[in-house]
Amino acid sequence: MDADEVLAGVAPLVAEGAVPGAIVGVRRRDGAAASIDLAAAGVTSPGGDVALRTDAVVRLSSNTKPLIAALALCLAADGLLALDEPVDRLVPELAHRRVLVRLDGEDVVPAHRPITVEDLLTMRMGFGFAVDEGPCPVLDRAVALGLGFGPPDPRGLPGPAEWLARFAGLPLLDQPGAAWRYELSYAVLGVLLARAAGRPLGEVLTERILAPLGMTATGFVADPTRLVPAFARDEDDALVPFDGVTDSHWLAPPAFPDGRGGLAGTAGDLLRFAGMLLDDGGGLLDPAAVAAMTTDHLTPAQRVAPGAVPFLDGGGWGLGVGVVGTAAGPRYGWAGGLGTLWYSWPDHDLAAVLVTQVFPPTASVFAAFTATVERALVR
Question: What positions does the domain Beta-lactamase-related occupy (predicted)?
Fold first, then answer.
């Protein structure tokens, strides 16, 4: 399978205007050698005439999470933290948590135990989105406090200390470890990792993950010469500007390097990261760490809870990646809310990436991409 074969499944939707353009990529192994193949269709803007290039820099949004999870495992291997330790040592602001008795109420009880680092990695910290679960005044306050609910915005958040102070003033929605909730755990995790390393998150991520893998286009600041614009769908389903190029919010270092979704990068860089995992860590991570990262950690009840279903769709969650079984075998990876998608099929030693820049992600394009790859894998 090559990128042109995958692009053939997506290109008709690009031609119809579902998205202005799309980049697809495949990382596969031929014998002893691994290769990355990229292809693109369409343009950078609706109605525009600038062709979308395969090396375009895009906003990775939630495809940031797998990289932050891998960094956590690197720092754990260094002895700077332990997955089973309470976060209290590095994030004392979150010690002695209180927990809501009911989502729609204000009564609280003490947390049964501290939040652990693993709770952050598995998104079982006890706080996150509550989709279709009725009113939740505490979540309303979280939104009002500017903690970041919605698409990523590097200019929209305060610095880490202020962000944590605001968050620490709220009770948890669930007991630590009890429920899976998207996605604030990774904002906390990014702060914790920076404190563990004693340096800004972007610096540590570059040193331990990005530079060793040759992910030279990925970071919290985008290369303006390769960045393409991003768009959002309005209530009439029309594409309107979300983030431009010359005025992009990704052109300056953010006050809050957001582990949830703050990175920009390329399809090729995502495939380099995917290849590291397929190669049992490639010397960067221990194979046991890769196995932990790509194995479901949730209970059956947690996978089908109201807060999880809209995001996991019946699948599970490892450390920074979704995990699911398919006709093509086990699959892991994750999507970004601004239109990026990465999946790996370890039984086939293959990874594939789709990049668009439309919020929310265009379901028909995501589905066509996934179906095209998996049809090829099972034929």
Answer: 10-372
Q: Are residues 156 and 300 in the same domain?
A: no
181 and 222 together in one domain: no
- For 269-323, the pLDDT digits (tens) are 999 999 999 999 999 999 999 999 999 999 999 999 999 999 998 899 999 999 9
Model confidence pTM above 0.90: yes
CATH number of the domain where residue 54 is located: 3.40.710.10
Mean pLDDT, the chain, as a whole number?
97
Terminal CA-to-CA distance of the chain, rounded, Å?
A: 11
Residue 127: inside a domain, yes or no?
yes
CA distance linking residue 65 with residue 60, whole number of Å:
10
Name the residue range of residue 82's domain. Answer: 71-197
ω into 183 cis (within 30 of 0): yes
Taking only the tens place, the pLDDT of each residue in 51-92 is: 999 999 999 999 999 999 999 999 999 999 999 999 999 999
